[in-house]
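Troubleshooting log. The previous structure file for this entry was overwritten by mistake, so regenerating from the original sequence record. Sequence copied from the archived sheet and checked twice against the printout by T.R.
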Amino acid sequence: MMLVEADVSGEWDSRTDWSALAERCVRAGVAHSRHADLAAGPAEVSVKFTSDEEIRALNGAWRGKDKATNVLSFPMVEEARLGSPEEPLLGDIVLAHGVCAREAADKGVAIEDHAAHLVVHGTLHLLGYDHETSEADAEEMEQAERRALAAIGIADPYQVTEVHI
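Regenerated output below.
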């Protein structure tokens, strides 16, 4: 069985069930990845919805970057060991509210949809996907994101919309 735990700070709108969104997105990310068998478990993912300040501190401590970012992923298992009953904790995903809200507004999408994309993106990082290693790896990750998001009713975040003047 897969367990998804969520921790939601006060600045995230209480009208949205962020825990349910995290659960839905992690499950979709796993189901549409090259590790779909992990959906049956045992596996555990933690998702934290937090502030820009907290994610800035984490980004500085773990990546040496003194700035807030939209999402961080902290894998706990090497890809080759995914699915091992001895290591069910896949890792942690952390989202920054302010960055997420600004990006959603810039893209003209609901913050829930953008957060869903970031949770799926973070989940894929926990599963060994890396968009920074090569164009082929980036395309593989984007395709997995598109499939996962489509499965939960969210539009392709990479679709280019033409504007006619």
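Helices lie at 18-31, 52-63, 97-107, 111-126, 135-151. Archived copy saved in two places this time.
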